[in-house]
Amino acid sequence: MSSPTISSSTSSLPPWRSIISGALHRNRSLPASRYLQLATVDQRGRPANRTVVFRGWRDPESQLQFVTDGRSALRESAGTSKAEEIAKNPWAEVCWYFPKTREQFRIAGKLQLIDARSTDGQPERQAAWNQMSEAGKVQFYWPLPGAIRTMEDFGEHELTLAPAADFCLLLLSPLMVDRLELRGNPQSRSRYCLLDNQEWSIESINP
Amino acid sequence: MSSPTISSSTSSLPPWRSIISGALHRNRSLPASRYLQLATVDQRGRPANRTVVFRGWRDPESQLQFVTDGRSALRESAGTSKAEEIAKNPWAEVCWYFPKTREQFRIAGKLQLIDARSTDGQPERQAAWNQMSEAGKVQFYWPLPGAIRTMEDFGEHELTLAPAADFCLLLLSPLMVDRLELRGNPQSRSRYCLLDNQEWSIESINP
User: Which of A139, B5, B151, B153 has the most CB atoms lying inside 10 A of its own CB?
Assistant: First the structure.
């Protein structure tokens, strides 16, 4: 059995990143190729799983960026804030399936939430707000997500340059990436792990 | 604030099932519409998330059916069997996104694994095996999933009428269904919960 390959430390980007970028490019005709499923664990120890939109990389750590409404707890019924839940259990795994090229990436790592009170990451939060459409921005002024629907106002709202108070940037720092290519017989599968020295190991594994 | 609607107890099927069946029908031109993401929690309390194929309903409980290889632990590195992990924490949440109709179903519930040793569910396990393609069946005779890739045989294998020893049927019993329709402004969102009397409550909630 051979030792895993270690990616070159001279490269500034992790070895899996160009592969995901290539998948995004080859699947660009499908708008849903930027949608992926984010799994977390709630305070009862149960999984939660929802679709999120990939909003680009945050360098230099190649974190995945998402946006989220701070009012919606990761599990609405738990009665705690999203920031509290993430601080207690930051672990997450996203599953990203690309239908056109038939490949799946599972990315496990830790989450960090940047909300209006965060001392770190405000420039990135502002940049993410700037990139939202008007229709996307206005939702952060709508009634409480997950609450019983009322006849409250879901209409227009005057938008400001500054992010809405509940607009949050969510960052995922990858620690393990599992890539499965369904094309081919047998399928190809690779596992990338972040080592203590911050280099990435690469292993070819059985599908 | 109005009380949630209670579905009629005379109906044999839960009220969300015909809605999912309708989504499956309207998205049938996309083969990936039968793919969904299954999140579980491993023994370290971390989420795991992977794509699975919907293999139909198991009545009368409207359980979702999947198939899985019993040799691949829910998290390979944990060193325990899939059956052991599921017995310790049966909670799961699937996220099912339909790209054509732009609707998402989050289905939370408990898993049950039917393997070769199960006293219950062998007819359903056999039926699921019968419905597998030859290419799908042969994978259950391949080398250990997730192990370092070797030059071992990934080729043909003589198939028998009986399921492969590691072929498992995985059942999800829904307890909560959250449906989000992205079309429309504002979007529509409904939550269905299984009550103690085995009826389903239906609530319209804020997106």
Answer: A139
Query: Is the Cβ pair A39, B35 closer than 8 Å?
Result: no
Collect all residues of chain A within an 8 Å Cβ-Cβ radius of residue B104: 50-51
Tell me if ipTM is over 0.85: yes
- Put simply, the answer to whether A185 touches B154 (Cβ < 8 Å) is yes
- The CA distance from B124 to the nearest CA of chain A, in Å, is 25
What does the alpha-carbon distance between residue B121 and residue B56 come to, in Å, rounded to a whole number? Answer: 15
Domains of chain B: 5-122+167-205 (2.30.110.10)
All residues of chain B having their beta carbon less than 8 Å from the beta carbon of residue A92 are: 47
